[in-house]
Amino acid sequence: MKPIQLVDLHTQYLHIKEEIDHAILDVVDSTMFIGGVHVKELSSELEKYLDIKHVIPCANGTDALQIALMALGCKPGDEILTPSFTYIATCEVIALLGLKPVFVEVDPNFFTIDIDDARKKITSKTKAIVPVHLYGQCANMDMVMSLADETGIKVVEDTAQAIGAHHTGINGKKSAGGIGDIGTTSFFPSKNLGCYGDGGAIFTNSDELAESIRRIANHGQTKRYYHDYIGVNSRLDNIQAAVLRIKLKHLDEYASNRQNVATYYNDQFADIPQLETPSVAPWSTHVYHQYTLKLNDIDRTQLQEHLDKAGIPSNIYYPVPAHRQKGYLQYSESQPKMIITDDLSARVLSLPIHTEMEIEQLEHITNTLKDYIQK
After folding, report:
1. Which of 292, 370, 321 shows the shortest CA–CA distance to 6?
2. Which among 214, 229, 248 is the end of a domain?
3. Residue where a domain terminates, one of 204, 224, 248
4. Along the 375 residues of the chain, how does pLDDT read in single tens digits?
5. Same domain, residue pair 256 and 223
6. What are residue 296's phi and psi, to 5 degrees?
7. Phi, psi of 351 (to 5 degrees)
8. Domain range holding 266?
């Protein structure tokens, strides 16, 4: 049995090695490292795949979130609704821009933003809401968009963990990231669609927002050396775009492989009350960026130690929610307690899941877990 990894990028690379090597060498040979044909073609191919009018690549997923909020005209003092149960980048860019993150609870079953709680926290200063499509499935975007329509706030979808997932709602089937005013994603190597460095993208169906996003991402230029707006320098390089174009062709296959792993886990853990398997929302497909259990009456630290001794990696996404991070206490001290978020942070555990898992590995993982619980 091969060593088990949380994400096996090397084996995935070997399956597409010839294409990848050729594409990278082609870019090096062209010496077109910034911009170039692959960046342009990736935008077009993602627009078609996602059925979204505009895809603007950028340097990373954090930049994508920052540029999105800048394009919406958010000003210091504006309030942005965001889950605390998310990777810190979602909250980080809000604070970086001088905005105020307002922490919102998540649904305890689906791990996505609780709209009822969000509604309670809207004030006259609320500018936008950031639903995070956590672990690989969509937030309830019908409820998000209904709230936005009622209140006039803007919607920025954080799709870093759910590219390729679909939401089915009152407007039919839509890609994650293509429902709100702006969608963002990350191409960090471990993501479902990952490059071989840093990368990200911003999505929108608005021509006006697309123009603003492109301008902001390129130093605020309307034309070269004419900076009519304050912007940033955020661009995807041609090598990363070349890699992503190849992997995009396999994205649905990759999602299917992850779903098969999740199904195996679910079947093996179905009758074990100490292990709550992930719930799939009725409005969303799940592409399982993470396979995350909720533990009941189990010492998580001891379980992780047991798994580690058996050669099984595991991880906690996320052990300290944003509202409890030292850098963010200034925003959370005056806000209500986050009971659900605190409970989830103390109970969740993610198991290995990726596109290259073998049955022997899955058997070892599930048998080890079941043996631990039985003992």
Report:
1. 292
2. 248
3. 248
4. 999 999 999 999 999 999 999 999 999 999 999 989 999 999 999 999 999 999 999 999 999 999 999 999 999 999 999 999 999 999 999 999 999 999 999 999 999 999 999 999 999 999 999 999 999 999 999 999 999 999 999 999 999 999 999 999 999 999 999 999 999 999 999 999 999 999 999 999 999 999 999 999 999 998 889 999 999 999 999 999 999 999 999 999 999 999 999 999 999 999 999 999 999 999 999 999 999 999 999 999 999 999 999 999 999 999 999 999 999 999 988 878 999 999 999 999 999 999 999 999 999 999 999 999 998
5. no
6. -120, 120
7. -100, 165
8. 251-374
28 and 123 both lie in a single domain: yes
> What pairing do the DSSP bridges indicate for beta strands 348-351 and 166-169?
unpaired
The C-alpha atoms of residue 319 and residue 188 are separated, in whole angstroms, by 21
Angle of the 359-374 helix axis to the 251-269 helix axis, nearest 10:
30
Sign, CA torsion 331/335/341/346: positive
Do 117 and 30 have their domain in common? Answer: yes
CATH of the domain at 278: 3.90.1150.10
Q: How many CB atoms lie within 10 A of CB 260?
A: 15
